[in-house]
Write a structure and sequence with these properties.
- The chain has one helix and 36 strands.
- The protein has about 425 residues and is mainly β.
- A hairpin with a 5-residue loop joins strand 16 and strand 17 (about 195-200).
- The chain starts with 19 loop residues before the first strand and ends with a strand.
Length: about 425
């Protein structure tokens, strides 16, 4: 999960000794109805095996993969016609012995689609015009030297991008390629004949039918996989960040707070992009005066340091607890700075605390976030919670949202 803790272990392959083949393109038209099938690491049925899936039979089980990658065929070893390894989209992959025969149908600098077995070895290749699919990922970083994208398939790719091919806009007094607005967002990934990555915006907000019932493992009528990857994008200008499903402290996420979902071959939800649900998509701190004479700098003081952000609107509200979307300080172009004040939940005394777990306010009991920050306005410095309890008697409680929305205490002001 987002904290580096293992939340799921999935066995994607065993000691497979069988030969992999491309399903639906050989004499094998269907698997026996009662076959034991594992597809992409999950139990499946014979009906779930589709054309162009890679199938390997071993020890009574059919291991199936539908993972693909499309890009320019630019490198191969030892030869392009009979390779043991190939490079596509700047990523090198091993090629199985059985797959070498497929490369007679493609040539150097062709746009191709690789098909992978469960071990992520190339098991076949086809010209991209014969086998097309939409290749979507998150643009995790972008600079003059290139872009890094994490595809929904889990493959990470890194390649140069022709920045001059994009229009320019003004940001913080400079001329910036508009592609920088895509940083941290969903993108469609292509590759040109020069090996450079082409990035196009992919719609983040889509209509989602139904709520996500977390305990039931359903989103509307669809099943949500136990290993679902969860992301948040608190604002259209903010980057998409990965969070853990365990960070969600409400039983049901309403459909209007679900930005987009991705599903597998059986219609099960594999990825969910949420709006502001967990509160972990924000940085928390105390708004301070900016150092920009134009008044376009918003400064957020935190216990671990200070961060500054460009904004066309004056940050204001100096000395008040607030939040700014995570990752905004690294972005080189955006249309809006997502920042706002925290919700004041009331003033409490020492007796209202439940150790370091939570506190009782007028609305009820609210949990403290694991990284709650305590600030003394008089001393103008951050303290630990234990220091504050030892030296102060009045505590102003600020949360990211209300109790019914799963809010947590993010900032405490002491007097």
């Amino acid at each position: 999960d987002s904290e580096g803790k293992i939340s799921l272990v999935s066995v994607e392959s065993a000691d497979m000794s069988g030969t992999a083949y491309v399903f639906g393109t050989t004499s094998v038209a269907a698997l026996p109805a009662n076959s034991k099938v594992i597809k992409n690491g999950n139990p499946a049925s014979a009906a779930d095996v589709k054309q162009y899936d890679i199938v390997t039979y071993s020890n009574g089980t059919y291991y199936v993969s539908d993972k693909k990658l499309t890009g320019i065929f630019q490198k191969a070893s030892p030869s392009f016609t009979h390779p043991s390894s190939v490079t596509v989209l700047g990523k090198e992959f091993s090629v199985t012995k059985e797959a070498a025969k497929y490369f007679s149908g493609v040539s150097y600098n062709d746009l191709v689609t690789l098909l992978f077995d469960p071990n992520m070895n190339v098991a076949a290749v086809y010209p991209a015009q014969k086998l097309q699919f939409e290749q979507i990922g998150i643009l995790s970083s972008l600079n003059d030297s290139g872009a890094k994208v994490t595809l929904m398939s889990g493959i990470n790719v890194e390649l140069p991008v022709e920045l001059s091919a994009y229009d320019y806009t003004r940001f913080n007094g400079a001329s910036v390629p508009t592609i920088y607005k895509l940083e941290g967002k969903l993108v469609k990934v292509l590759q040109d004949r020069n090996g450079k990555m082409i990035l196009l915006a992919s719609e983040t907000k889509q209509y989602v039918s139904g709520d996500w019932n977390i305990s039931a493992g359903t989103l509307g009528a669809a099943k949500v996989l136990s290993g679902v990857r969860v992301f948040e994008q608190v604002d259209p200008s903010a980057p998409i960040i990965e969070v853990s499903a365990s960070d969600i402290h409400i039983p049901v996420v309403k459909s209007d707070n679900i930005r987009r979902i991705f599903t597998d071959y059986a219609g099960r939800v594999t990825h969910i992009i949420l709006g502001d649900v967990t509160g972990n998509g924000y940085e928390y701190g105390i708004f301070a005066a900016g150092n920009d004479s134009s008044g376009n700098t918003v400064t957020l003081q935190q216990s671990g340091g200070t961060k500054s952000y460009y904004s066309e609107k004056n940050g204001g509200n100096i000395g008040t607890p607030g939040e700014v979307a995570k990752g905004m300080e690294n972005m080189k172009c955006y249309t809006n700075l997502p920042c706002k004040l925290l919700k004041f939940m009331g003033t409490v005394t020492l007796g209202d605390f439940d150790g370091a777990k939570g506190v009782t306010v007028s609305d009820g009991y609210i949990k403290l976030s694991d990284d709650v920050q305590v600030y003394s306005s008089e001393q103008k410095k951050f303290l630990t919670l234990s220091e504050a309890k030892a030296n102060f008697t009045s505590f102003g409680i600020y949360s990211d949202r209300g109790l019914s929305e799963g809010g947590k205490v993010r900032i405490i002001l002491v007097k």
